[in-house]
Amino acid sequence: MGFWQDFFRKNGKALGLFLLGSVACWMLLMIILPQLFMLDFSFRTNVPPPLWGTEAHGYTFEHYRYMIYGSAQSTESYNFVDLSVFGRTILTAIFVTLIDVALCYPVAYYLAHVATGGWPRLMVMALIVPFWVNELLRAFAFKIMFGSTGIINNFLVAIGILDQPFDFIRNSVALYSGLSYAYILLMIFPIYNAVESLDKNQIEAARDLGSPWWRIHWRVVIPHAKPGITSGCTMVFMLTAGALAAPQILGGPSSLWFTQIIYQAFNQAGNWARGSAYAIILLATCIIFVLCVMKIFKVKLGEIAR
Amino acid sequence: MSADVQLNDVWIRFGDFVAARDVNIHIQEGEFFSFLGPSGCGKTTLLRAVSGFLDPSEGQVLIGGKDMAGIGPNKRPTALIFQNLALFPLMTVWENIAFSLEVKGIGKEERRKKANELLELIALPDQGEKMVNELSGGQKQRVAIARALAAEPDVLLLDEPLSALDLKLRQHMRTELRAIQQRVGITFIYITHDQGEALTMSDHVAVMSQGVIQQVADGSTIYDHPETAFVASFVGENNMFSGKITEVSEEYAVVETPSGMLRARRTKGKGGSLHRGDEAFVFIRPESLKFVNGSAFDNRVNANIKQQEFEGSFWQVFFDVEGNNRTVKLSMVNDGSTLPHEVGDRVELGFSADVAIATPAGELAAE
Ligand SMILES: Nc1ncnc2c1ncn2[C@@H]1O[C@H](COP(=O)(O)OP(=O)(O)O)[C@@H](O)[C@H]1O
Ligand SMILES: [Mg+2]
Questions:
Q1: What pLDDT, in 10s, does the model give residues B126-173?
Q2: Which band of pLDDT confidence, cut at 50, 70 and 90, is reported for residue A305?
Q3: CB neighbours of A165 closer than 8 A, spacing ≥ 6?
Q4: pLDDT tens readout for residues B308-326
Q5: B80:A208 CB<8 A
Q6: Residue A257: phi, psi to the nearest 5?
Q7: Is B51 touching ligand 1 by the criterion CB < 6 Å?
Q8: What is the CA radius of gyration of chain B?
Q9: What is the pLDDT of residues B197-232, one digit of tens each?
Q10: What CA–CA distance (Å, rounded) separates B127 from B137?
Q11: Which of B11, B12, B14, B207 gets mutated to test ligand 1 (max ligand atoms within 8 A of its CB)?
């Protein structure tokens, strides 16, 4: 009660109602309604738009069934194609998240506690500016870079490490790199913020008490930065699992990403119901997975929002 | 074990700024040694050079006779207690205390035991399972001491560890710190801007100003025989007269001031170079200044009583003295008799040459 009284006293009635109303509208229109709509859709039979809302548009579990068992006509007992793509997408997203942590933690620590003078500013700029470039363009740039006549192959062949160009695309190296890079800022900044708020004296105290560098990180810096690390991991994992542009452009011919299947369901197969069901499955899996990981690492939901 | 610490010709520079200037100090093993100086004079910087967080730009730091150049803070036989304590908030009290043992790879059982012993020493038994932030200021203070002692350092370095405590606790902790030091018998190097702390706890005090060591001596020598104008004005209260030297002998100097000719003991050591014609200061402590009533004094000045304050066991009397634009202060023990004068009275003040001190003119402590 006190919160709302305070809120209205501070902002006045009119402004307070406006603020409250716009946030509520935002939540309702942009987040809750579309998701509810999707959820509803995923449980209905797939009928063309003119029949929406009619008898024929009834409730069913068929799309969720389809994800697991495939079509009734199929000879396979499970929908191996979709399930394996789903599994690979989740595993790859985990892998990409781990790569990002491994890359970003040292950089964030360096920026926060080692670099002096103008360096940190310059490095942060160097990290941000490339992201002014459109996501698609960045993906294409990676494709060119990793292509068979791209700069990386040319270089490796020129210095004699490779005899002939390596197919980075078919071997998913380009995809992993592209995905790792795509959301790296969302990993760096939460970790940086968390690490930066650590009192330098604590690092020095640990050192003074005889601690080698790795134990300082293990016992002092990482525990302090844990909410930031978790926050970064959550965002990178969710966004990577839900990425579309990078897999579309950088994925090899044989490596589908789960979002591509969803995309196909919506756009090519015209099966909105199945697309919705698949999207809901992906969302639910990601949320459950993230909550489990947070439970394991004893991070509370409130902490990562700091 | 305990070790001595030597600073030989130590200079510390940050760019053009000199934070420590030609510091030469020998701290004996097992003693309680204090650095005393106003904030920003370079005390922390000097301590960081001893603990290994920074290397002197020039000169040597020796601990136990061993040159510490190139030896990192985690390899030095020192433990530092930070100005803000820097306890680990995500560890329990006992884990904090046992951190240095964990680093050495000692098993949990034994760490716990050692932590309990130290909790006993700092009078916080059974508080090991608490988180650091559940403790009061004074308790945190003691945990920081225990954590440092657990590392079994030869030298314990303390950077204004009591500054965050309230007055009463501070005075209590002084006694406690001194007792702990005597119990463990290792060298303590203590930093403070509080002269009360430095004078009560220390075997020796180094008074410091703007990166320069002004004087190293025991507390009573610092108080009674200051060597420089800075020490005389920084430690304790002092009345000051400035003038020119007209006469110097082995023991005394005569200084011509606008308030009259003043004779005083001359400084030795660092402030020893007094010559005829030099600018000089004469310092006289409020408790050494007397009302002239018939008795003979080496020095006399004329004054007007500006204000009188009653402080229980003391009377403080403030004067305007002819030829001196600083307020002069006299303190006298309250022996039950009434004050001999009233505000506005014109009086003569006297003091003997043996309780006054003449130093070369120089930097004074900020009021
Ligand atoms: N890393 C540094 N870079 C530049 N100047 C510094 C640095 N550390 C300390 N100083 C300067 O050195 C002087 C002494 O600082 P410090 O040793 O912390 O003083 P104290 O502990 O006596 O208050 C201060 O003027 C401070 O600004
Ligand atoms: Mg300091």
A1: 899 999 999 998 899 999 999 999 999 999 999 998 888 888 888 888
A2: low
A3: A148, A149, A153, A157
A4: 998 888 899 999 998 888 9
A5: yes
A6: -105, 145
A7: no
A8: 24
A9: 999 999 999 999 999 999 999 999 999 999 999 999
A10: 14
A11: B14
Give strand pairing partners of B318: B307, B329
What's the CA gap between A83 and A68, in Å, rounded? 7
Chain B within 8 Å of A201 (Cβ-Cβ)? Answer: yes
Is any atom of ligand 1 closer than 6 Å to the C-beta of B47? no
Task: Give the long-range contacts of residues A297-302, CB within 8 A, separation 24 or more.
Answer: A297/A226, A297/A230, A299/A226, A299/A227, A299/A230
What is the second-level CATH architecture of the domain A60-304? Answer: Orthogonal Bundle (1.10)
Q: Nearest-CA neighbor of B239 among B318, B344, B334?
A: B318
Q: Using a CB-CB distance cutoff of 8 angstroms, which residues of chain A are in contact with residue B143?
A: none
Measured distance CA(B337)–CA(B344) in Å, rounded: 20
Under the banding of pLDDT at 50, 70 and 90, the label for residue B259 is very high
Closest by CA position to A291, among listed A301, A281, A280, A276 = A301
Calpha distance B122→B56 (Å, rounded): 34
Of residues B295 and B198, more confidently modeled: B198
Cα separation of B351 and B263, whole Å?
Answer: 9
Under 8 Å between Cβ of B223 and B217:
no
Q: Quickly tell me which residue has 């010559």 as its tokens.
A: B275
Domain ranges of chain A: 60-304
Displacement of CA A141 from its chain's centroid (Å): 20
A169 closest CA partner among A92, A245, A253: A253
Average of per-residue pLDDT across B243-262:
92
pLDDT score for B347: 92
Residues of A in contact with B155 (CB under 8 A): none
ipTM at complex level: 0.84
Q: CB–CB of B245/B280 below 8 Å?
A: yes
Q: B82 to chain A: which residues are within 8 Å by CB?
A: 201, 204-205
Residues 6+ apart with CB under 8 A from B150: B97, B98, B99, B100, B101, B114, B115, B118
Interchain CB distance below 8 Å, A210 and B72: no
Supply the DSSP symbol for B131.
Answer: B
**Residues constituting chain A:** 306
Q: How far apart are CA A268 and CA A271, in angstroms?
A: 8
Burial A166-199 (b: 16+ CB within 10 A, else e): bebbeebbbbbbbbbbbbbbbbbbbbbbbbeebb
Question: Cα(B180)–Cα(B187) distance, rounded to whole angstroms?
Answer: 11
Write the Ramachandran bin of B30: left for phi over 0, alpha for psi from -120 to 50, otherwise beta.
left
Which atom of ligand 1 is closest in space to residue B17's alpha carbon?
5
- How high is the pLDDT of residue A253? 75
Q: For chain A, give the mean pLDDT.
A: 88
Helices assigned H by DSSP within chain B: 43-51, 93-97, 99-103, 108-121, 137-150, 167-184, 195-201, 219-224, 229-234
- Residues B366/B233, Cβ–Cβ less than 8 Å: no
Between the CA of B59 and the centroid of ligand 1 the distance, in Å, is: 18
Let me know how many helices (H) and strands (E) chain B has, helices first: 9, 20
| Tokens 């009463």 -> residue | B168
B218 near B203, Cβ under 8 Å?
yes
- Mean local confidence (pLDDT), A114-132: 87
H helix or E strand, kind and range, residue A37: helix A33-42
Q: Is the pLDDT of residue B3 over 80?
A: yes
Out of B21, B44, B53, give the residue to mutate to test ligand 1, the one with the largest number of ligand atoms within 8 Å of its CB. B44
